[in-house]
Amino acid sequence: MNCLEKRILKNGIVKNANVLKVDSFLNHQIDIKLLQEMALEWQYRFKDIEINKILTIESSGIAISAIVASVFNVPLVYAKKEKSQTIEDDFYKASVFSFTHNVENNIIVKRDYLSEDDNILIIDDFLANGCALEGLIEICNQANANIKGIGIAIEKGFQDGGRKIRNIGYRLESLAIIEKMSDKEIIFRK
Ligand code: G4P
Fold it and tell me: What was the pLDDT predicted at 84?
């Protein structure tokens, strides 16, 4: 069992059959030492790929990605959520529906910060239905940037996102994959 799985068992709170709260260490109060260990684990798992940029989405992805970017010694770009429909031409744009929050957001990245010269590692905190990842992939495709890998902290394996993304052929490394969870137990995929 890795450090993130151990921490989820210690401090994660299952809110209902679908939502795991990790506010105390990952996305509200943040344990930087844990993030450093997670970043080193991704560095090990992706040691065979060459990247020059990390891409994530605001807001919870940013802190994790900042530490990962520091370990890989590359810049971090994050997609911004933009409610307004009128966006200038100098942005890549994709539409992302959040099932958890039941809201549609445009996500945008300035064209200056992503191009066909970029080899990208995408990082995010949660993978549930995969909509956020699909939006980030769409933005990379618009920029003709190369997606070399995807690192997810917590994949909810009982939702469809991981299967969809792996089926398309992306290399997806999730540090903790939850097979099932209830208020009594959390079971990780081996
Ligand atoms: P998807 O992106 O994989 O399709 O999932 P979904 O629409 O369900 O998730 C939307 C948001 O909810 C994402 O954050 C995601 O990180 C978060 N999320 C999904 N499942 C869980 C969960 O079990 N626990 C927690 N704590 N968060 C979850 P977001 O809307 O992009 O917002 P932000 O929190 O990063 O600002």
Answer: 66
